[in-house]
Design brief:
Distance between the termini: 9 Å
CATH architecture: 2-Layer Sandwich
Oligomer: single chain
Radius of gyration: 17 Å
Strand order of the largest sheet: 2-5-1-6
Length: 114
């Protein structure tokens, strides 16, 4: 089992959900988050003054999958969240080992609980 954490642009969420549905991944948690990478935030003008915002609004997807779904899930997220030719700020995907999973309602554990 793996836990996939993907940080994406907010406007790409619907495209990512559609791409995940095509590879039969339907369960995820979506969190609003802030951060920056190479783009180092952004600047805007407010009341005639330039203001630097160091943190950019993003979404983090948390998706637990069994081994067979890791690569299809990663490919779907990459294809759907990439803007055009790919640009700074498109996001990142982290793949972590998942030691266990417990379904609270039934008490099932492991891959069956996902």
């Amino acid at each position: 089992m793996k836990l996939i954490l993907a940080t994406i642009r907010s406007e790409r969420l619907e495209a990512v959900k559609e791409a995940l549905a095509r590879v039969e991944v339907f369960r995820m948690t979506v969190l609003h988050c802030q951060g920056f990478g190479r783009q180092k935030g952004q600047t805007e003008f407010h009341r005639g003054r330039e203001v630097a915002y160091n943190l950019v609004q993003k979404l983090e997807l948390q998706i637990a999958v069994n081994e067979d779904f890791v690569e299809p899930t990663v490919r779907a997220i990459m294809e759907a969240s990439r803007s055009g030719e790919g640009a700074v700020g498109d996001g990142k995907i982290f793949i972590l080992p998942l030691e266990d999973c417990v379904r609270i309602r039934t008490g099932e554990r492991g891959p069956e609980a996902i």
